[in-house]
UniProtKB/TrEMBL annotation:
<keyword id="KW-0645">Protease</keyword>
<feature type="domain" description="Prohead serine protease">
    <location>
        <begin position="27"/>
        <end position="161"/>
    </location>
</feature>
<protein>
    <recommendedName>
        <fullName>Prohead serine protease domain-containing protein</fullName>
    </recommendedName>
</protein>
<dbReference type="GO" id="GO:0008233">
    <property type="term" value="F:peptidase activity"/>
</dbReference>
<dbReference type="InterPro" id="IPR054613">
    <property type="entry name" value="Peptidase_S78_dom"/>
</dbReference>
<dbReference type="InterPro" id="IPR006433">
    <property type="entry name" value="Prohead_protease"/>
</dbReference>
<keyword id="KW-1188">Viral release from host cell</keyword>
<keyword id="KW-0378">Hydrolase</keyword>
<dbReference type="GO" id="GO:0006508">
    <property type="term" value="P:proteolysis"/>
</dbReference>
<dbReference type="Pfam" id="PF04586">
    <property type="entry name" value="Peptidase_S78"/>
</dbReference>
Length: 187
């Protein structure tokens, strides 16, 4: 699905998540926000190399692709620590931030399986008509969002791990046990 965003000319593409990740502290996700050569549900195909100039420009300016919630520029939920093209597509790796209210909500929805999509927000720089859609040759990438509905089923989060190596629930359970032990000793 292509959608015109709030900024004039900004387009979005939705992509699915591969697995239902668990709720983690320092939650890191990685996967493909776009896969080259595959038609999305709108008929558009992203050509290998389409993101290269945009990523180079962002790097030269010391900026990064934004991680948003449902393409809302007022609701950033984390940071993409790595965004790069490889032979398969646009690989992303980043952290959903627990210190942000919407980030906590996003993690709860990810854990419950209610949210299972990624979506790119971009401007088309160069494209040509191709079948039912377009062949996207150059894209100015603005953001990659967590979203409700996927556009490209093959573009998915492939890993989801806690940054600290500990599940939040495990930490809480350990603290509760320690508190119970301390109370028993004092009784």
């Amino acid at each position: 699905m292509t959608h015109q965003g709030p900024a004039s000319g900004l387009e979005t593409k939705f992509c699915g998540l591969n697995e239902r990740p668990g709720l983690k502290d320092g939650y890191e996700i990685s996967g493909y926000a776009s896969v080259f050569g595959l038609a999305d549900r709108g008929g558009d195909i992203v050509e290998r190399g389409a993101y290269a100039r945009s990523l180079d420009r962002l790097k030269a300016q010391g900026r990064q692709v934004k991680m948003l919630w449902q393409h809302d520029p007022l609701r950033p939920i984390g940071v993409w620590d790595e965004v790069r093209e490889d032979a398969r597509g646009l690989f992303v790796k980043g952290r959903v931030l627990r210190d942000v209210q919407v980030g906590r909500e996003a993690l709860a929805l990810l854990d419950a399986g209610a949210i299972d999509g990624l979506s790119i927000g971009y401007r088309t720089i160069q494209s040509e008509k191709s079948g039912q859609g377009r062949l996207l040759k150059e894209i100015d990438l603005w953001e990659v969002s967590l979203v409700t509905f996927p556009m490209l089923p093959d573009a998915r989060v492939e890993t989801a791990t806690p940054e600290t190596g500990e599940d939040t629930r495990d930490v809480v359970e350990s603290l509760a046990e320690a508190l119970a032990d301390a109370r028993a000793l004092l009784a």
